[in-house]
Amino acid sequence: MMVSKHKESLIEVCQILAEQQHLQVTVKSAAKSALITGVGAFFGALIAGPIGVAVGGTLASVTTAVATKGTYKSVVDILKNDLTPDQQGRLAASVGKNNG
C-alpha cells in the first residue's frame, strides 16, 4: 500500500511526539480533566436544569484545575522545553516537508 508523502510526514511527527513521556501524561491528564468537567456539568444539569450545567461545569473545572496543578505540562511547554535538540530538528524537518 502506497502512503503519500504528506501522511508519511504526519506519521513521523506523531512518532517524534510519542517519544515524549510528558506528552503522554498531558494527554491522559487532560482527558481525565475533561471527563470530570463533563460529569460535573451533567450532574449540575440534573439537579438545577440549564443553569446547573454552567454551575456544575464551572465547579468541576475549578476543582480539577486546582487538583492537577503542577502535575502535567502544556503541549507548547513540552515542545519548547522537553524535546531534545535532535527531536526538535526532526520535528521541524517533518513539519517543513508539509509546508514546502
UniProtKB/TrEMBL annotation:
Top-rank lineage group of the source organism: Eukaryota
A Pfam family assignment: C19orf12
InterPro entries: C19orf12
Family note: Belongs to the C19orf12 family.
PANTHER family named among the record's database cross-references: NAZO FAMILY MEMBER (PTHR31493), PROTEIN C19ORF12 (PTHR31493:SF1)
Name this polypeptide is given: Uncharacterized protein
